[in-house]
Amino acid sequence: MFEKGIKIISRILTVAFMFLIADGFYLSRKGFVFENGQISLVKPAAAQTAPAPADIKGFNIDTPYILGNPDAEISIFEFSSLGCAHCADFHLSVLPKLRKDFIDTGKVKLIFADFPIDKKSMQAAMLARCMSEDKYFDFLSTLFKKQLSWSLSFKSEKLLAGYAEMEGLSQEKIQKCLNDDNTAAEIMYIRQQAMEKLDVKATPSFLIKKGDEGEMLTGVPSYDTLKEVLERKIND
């Protein structure tokens, strides 16, 4: 009985080890490295005490995926990983109130900036970018709601593909999206720019920007905190 238990444990450890090896190989192909216990891009951001005003002034993301009025004067750039539990908390608990009071009223727009922290988050981000503009944020909500299922699964790619298929993507399209190196490069570029220009080191992080002025928030801000910052900027 003891020997049987040892064999079972051995098999589990072997599968886990092989999974980590495969995960690392995937990330290395996409431009990530594993250093000091953390996953990062090949070119890490230089340490900064605070983001330079010129960097905030010049920072922007060219994306069609905007929640709210594209011409809104105030922008919220959300640096988020789809596998991040705190990011899910923001999307499911704080964003609905923010959307009702500020985004749907045309005062503020939100730009989702991919900042994947692992292979699964990267795959989820790549699939989300295959959605049409009108389905993109709804798909993000689906991924965050089901995060616990796919992020902890050894069959995460299959689960993610299933969610995409439910939104109308064919299996052929799904595989094409998951293997699109141009999309992967775009996502990595956004991540790298956030690290280098804004000193983003954790998810979620937020840049709240009006004109050439902006301020950073790290972690999940309460609705009241966001409301205070946004109302101040609206009245500036």
Q: How would you explain this protein's 3D organization?
A:
This protein has about 240 residues and is an alpha+beta fold. The chain folds into two domains: about 1-30; about 40-235, Glutaredoxin (3-Layer(aba) Sandwich), CATH 3.40.30.10. About 55% of the residues lie in helices and about 15% in strands. The chain has ten helices and seven strands. It has helices at about 1-30, 55-60, 85-105, 120-130, 135-145, 145-150, 155-165, 170-180, 180-200, 225-235, and strands at about 30-35, 40, 65, 75-80, 110-115, 205-210, 215-220. The strands form two sheets. The chain has a five-stranded mixed sheet with strand order 3-5-4-6-7, sandwiched between helices. Strands 1-2 form a two-stranded antiparallel sheet. α3 (about 85-105) packs across α10 (about 225-235) and α4 (about 120-130) packs parallel to α7.
